Amino acid sequence: MAELTTEYLGLQLPSPVILASSALSNRLDNLVAAEEHGAGAVVLRSLFEEQIEAASTEAEEAGQRHAESNPEARTYFPPQRVGPHEYLSLVQRAKKALGIPVIASLNCCAPGSWTGYARQIADAGADAIEVNIYSVEADPSLPGSEVERRYVEAVAGIQAAVKIPVAVKLSPYFTSLANVVAQLQQTGVAGVVLFNRFLQPDISLERMAPVSVMSLSTPSEALLPLRWIGLLHGRVQLDLAASTGVHDSAGALKQLLAGATVVQLASTLTRNGVPHLAKVLQGIEEWMDRRGHSSIDEFRGTLSQKQVSDPGAFERAQYVHLILSQNI
């Protein structure tokens, strides 16, 4: 019988398949269902930097109004930084209901005083924090080095605030992604999640205005994280989590063969229901039994490119061969 237990971010997981941060992970019943169908862990829906800052501003304004109406209160009623209590409640309720690790998610775009809220999340019982950095850099005067510095600074602030493991969910849009991952590794983070899906706005010809479209991922999108997980495995000392485009057991197995520590699912569970998670795990087990693998560690990373001395040259050679071999 195949053994699916996995270690991720220093946490023991019963399986390598995780419920990703999404609308599904906003409800306790979905979290419970995910565990019942074999999830190794759950990542809660994101708490956004803007929510924290808004709550802080609202608390400060409330404190100011109180002080102005009660002059004596100015000596003992300092501005308060109160984050969204609902999120802390979700962490606490999830920890109480589940036996698998509960990973909180912070969605941010820049360093800030809000990073201290990570400590409250840890105190609420979260086993780890996934930092989801979502920032579209459109300023032509902003150099890439400054973008990278802000990312690393934001992560380092959270890393310093908590004692639980931290993972970083990245976008693929870096000139040297491997170097960014190496910089993040120096901050002490335990893993990276590849990749974040940015919102791609469309234009309505009828309304003559931009429109926001949130679409589910497709299996073809899994090729990008597959490539980078294969390139990074063995070259960085971090756990690698595959996210985006994994819809079935075949997709999950490919990511594990490339070197992924775990695989996160969201779109396929939204489309097929949380019980689909069990089908994915069943397919992994059946494949392992056919191949004679008793554990995931036996084959994880066996198809990565760490044996290649120059992966860039290898990729270029494959590209040239593929292009020149096409006869249309």
* CATH class category: Alpha Beta
Low-confidence stretches: 58-83
Radius of gyration, in angstroms, nearest whole number = 22 Å
**Strand order in the largest sheet:** 3-4-5-6-7-8-11-12
Structural domain tally: 1
Question: What value does the average pLDDT take?
Answer: 87
Helix/strand class: alpha/beta
Question: What's the architecture, going by CATH?
Answer: Alpha-Beta Barrel
* CATH superfamily grouping: Aldolase class I
Query: In one word, what is the shape?
Result: globular
Helix percent band: 40-55%
Query: How big a fraction of the residues is strand?
Result: 15-25%
Explain what this protein looks like in three dimensions:
The protein has 328 residues and is α/β, with parallel strands linked by helices. It has a single domain, classed as Aldolase class I (TIM Barrel). It is built from 11 helices and 12 strands. It has helices spanning 28-36, 49-69, 85-97, 117-123, 144-161, 177-186, 223-232, 249-258, 267-272, 276-291, 311-325, and strands at residues 6-8, 11-13, 17-19, 41-48, 102-108, 128-133, 166-170, 191-194, 202-204, 209-211, 239-242, 262-265. The strands form 3 sheets. The protein has an 8-stranded parallel barrel, surrounded by 9 helices. A two-stranded antiparallel ribbon has the order 1-2. Strand 7 (166-170), helix 6 and strand 8 form a beta-alpha-beta unit. Helix 7 (223-232) runs parallel beside helix 8 (249-258). The longest helix is centred in the N-terminal third of the chain and has 21 residues, at 49-69. The termini are far apart. Residues 58-83 have low confidence and may be disordered.
